[in-house]
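During the no-cost extension, the postdoctoral fellow (Dr. R.K.) reprocessed legacy sequence entries with the updated structure-token encoder. One reprocessed record is reproduced below for audit purposes.
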Amino acid sequence: MDLKELLKAGRGQLLETMAQPQPDELAESLVAFANADGGTVLLGVNAAGAVAEQLPDEHLEAILLRAQMLCHPPVETTWQSLGTGHGLVTAIQIPRSTQLHSLQDGRILLRSGARNRPLSGEEVRHLAATKGAGDYELEPITAATSADLDDRLIAEHLRQRRERGPRGEKQTDEQLLAEMGALDPKGVPTVAGLLLYGRNPQRFLPQSGAVFVRFQGTDVVAGGGSQTNMQREELAGPVGAIIEGLWAAIWNQVRHESVVSGLKREDRPEYPQPAVREAVVNAVAHRDYRIGGRRIEVRMFDDRLEIVSPGGLPGHITLDNIVEEHFSRNPRLVRGLFYAGFIEELGLGIDRMIHEMIQAGHPRPHFEAQPFTFKVTLRNVRERAASKWTQQLNERQIRALAHIEADSRITNREYHELCPDVTPETLRLDLADMVDKGILLRIGDKKGTYYILK
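Re-encoded structure tokens follow.
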């Protein structure tokens, strides 16, 4: 996106705006972005995205210098002036850091959505361990040369980068590739460069491929485990080709059903397309490419789809905060997929996956984290428990019952996630109505309240 679209999108995971920056305020964003996936601070832009009065360069430089002194260790930055139809703004670029940064008062902040959030002691320990592991994406592959990169893919990426990047139009091809981490200072392709643009990345990184298997039945040994009862496909190439290949393999096996809605007949797939897309893209973007001998595995059964990615949860991410928090193990790979259009909005893949599955009447995705693997399971079960209540309940309430069938209970917050466009009072009345009808039983009080089938 260009600067105009960036201003329109507003503050978020990768962007902060400050009309009249103060050193301590700027230092907080420098630390938060450096500890997370990097980002941009636009100086001279207010919270509404409007260009404010431009500050002299020498004044901005003094503020930035003072802010740097408040960061320990100092945060690496670059900055430049960008033109808009209403004047100039100053863009400070903060790359993701391999070090853990804190403020002068000892606080360690992390960018979380549109805010800079202080970390707890346990979160700091997890993040420090991740930082200490180094930045594998930037490691050069010494056996590779620039001839191992696909010029066509690079040219297409540079075009997309200039269209969507906040400052890409100001840089040369070499500068853009260096900024993306595709080449090291000596011009040697890096891990990120080969994954994004390699002609044959698996020659150097054999673990970067993927495997799709379609099993007949609901378990691996259905049909006696015979090879004739499964279909297998191996995917290779750069990450964009891996995503497209997995998508085609999955969708070739997805079953469809005809559903009559009003006077129209709809062709409905057994899984919502956006949820499958997000699960596949997340697996490719966030797997741990340091782990050799393991590829991404997609297993399709009659009742579920399993996407298994090598590598546990990165940084401070846990199963408890996976929806609210964002941290990339491979930020340059994620940026490359974002510019290529595989990722629509950074940091919202898990949220969208959950939303799409629930909206389609399926259980929420199940996430399973192990030290060296992360698995997402999408189940194709629809609103079976709710069918007997169809005549008594509205569509929202039926959706709530389907959720209870999958998770055994529902809270007010989870009901709001199912129906984000409905007021909390209406949803409260929905639940109270089902209690009055003898369908649900209310357990607990205040914030601890949840509902189960009576």
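The chain has a mean pLDDT of 84. The CA atoms of residues 245 and 396 lie 36 Å apart. The remaining legacy entries will be reprocessed before the final report is submitted.
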